[in-house]
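Need a sequence for this fold. Nothing fancy.
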């Protein structure tokens, strides 16, 4: 099931004591859709704390180690790459491939292969279940902070960073560019993206978004998927039953080094004792009153939530991707730093390609 939303009849929201006034956006997310970001742009990733860390890259990438140096040619590159659909407002009309457009009667653009070593693409889930947070920050903004941290850890001279924003009805592409200013621009765009209201519907799912990113970005590199990995209407707790997105994640990991960042809120896994509480699913029509003063009821809910998270962990491990779990009540920079330090020892084994696939 998707992240719960506490309804108005439940009384005051279960938030941490001493939440400053500027965090009112996260507090209001308990009762409705937030209206503004809960983390300012300059607080997303403290660069001073990341200068001595570097994300380990173990999969073979395209190019010949040009990432640490200037490219041989200026600009994005000169070698033709795959053609893809033209996106109005995002693509340069000068890149339209008229031969493919004439054959298909649909505008296509031809990408070029840049003289770079590493190309990072991050997929951010902004569906209604990500709008929720009880600890001064929403899960959506925590996911953006995680993307900022990974961006600073993986960025070197000439490397490019791009993004996708997944909504219930569409997948928005943010072009990959190099440089610190371009990374800040991408983060600002994600922060100012309009919030998706509860019960918004559409054909886009996490599995579809991962598949589209995999097909559109054929150049090998680092892929970061940020989500709570909750599928609306999926109540399965058996870890032997794979979620619908597992196959897509495994396919993405065949050619790329993939990092899955799972964002959770404390009250999704530790239900508070606040008496009768209305629990609503922001992505379906599920609503139910629960007496959280009953210790047995809280124990059953906590056990079901733990089983749900364990199923996600096992599925990501089966897919062969790196997995970080970030919580809204903890320091995300410290959690990512601990992961990066431990990642050096297991990255080569975790991202070993399938038999017959070139590393």
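Here you go.
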């Amino acid at each position: 099931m998707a992240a719960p939303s506490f309804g108005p009849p439940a009384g005051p929201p279960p938030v941490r004591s001493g939440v400053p006034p500027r965090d009112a956006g996260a507090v209001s997310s308990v009762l409705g859709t937030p209206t503004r970001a809960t983390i300012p742009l300059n607080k997303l990733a403290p660069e001073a704390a990341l200068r001595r860390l570097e994300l380990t890259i173990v999969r073979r990438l395209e190019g010949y180690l040009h990432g640490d140096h200037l490219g041989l040619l200026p600009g994005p590159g000169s070698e033709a790459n795959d053609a893809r659909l033209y996106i109005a407002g995002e693509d340069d009309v000068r890149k339209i491939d008229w031969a493919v457009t004439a054959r298909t009667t649909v505008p296509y653009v031809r990408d070029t292969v840049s003289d770079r070593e590493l190309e990072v693409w991050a997929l951010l889930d902004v569906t209604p279940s990500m709008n929720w947070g009880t600890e001064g920050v929403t899960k959506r903004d925590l996911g953006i902070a995680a993307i900022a941290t990974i961006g600073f850890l993986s960025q070197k001279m000439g490397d490019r960073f791009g993004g996708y924003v997944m909504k219930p009805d569409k997948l928005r592409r943010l072009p990959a560019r190099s440089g610190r200013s371009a990374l800040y621009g991408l983060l600002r765009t994600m922060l100012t993206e309009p919030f998706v209201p509860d019960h918004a519907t559409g054909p886009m799912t996490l599995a579809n978004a991962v598949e589209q990113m995999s097909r559109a970005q054929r150049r090998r590199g680092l892929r970061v998927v940020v989500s709570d990995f909750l599928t609306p209407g999926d109540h399965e707790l058996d870890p032997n039953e794979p979620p619908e997105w597992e196959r897509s994640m495994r396919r993405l990991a065949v050619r790329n080094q993939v990092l899955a960042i799972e964002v959770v809120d404390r009250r999704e896994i530790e239900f508070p004792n606040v008496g009768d509480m209305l629990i609503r699913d922001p992505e379906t029509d599920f609503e139910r009153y629960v007496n959280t003063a009953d210790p047995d009821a809280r124990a059953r809910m906590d056990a079901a939530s733990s089983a749900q998270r364990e199923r996600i962990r096992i599925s990501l491990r089966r897919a062969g991707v790196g997995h970080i779990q970030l919580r809204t009540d903890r320091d995300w920079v410290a959690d990512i730093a601990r992961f990066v330090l431990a990642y050096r020892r297991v990255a080569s084994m975790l991202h070993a390609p399938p038999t017959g696939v070139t590393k």
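For context: The mean pLDDT is 79.
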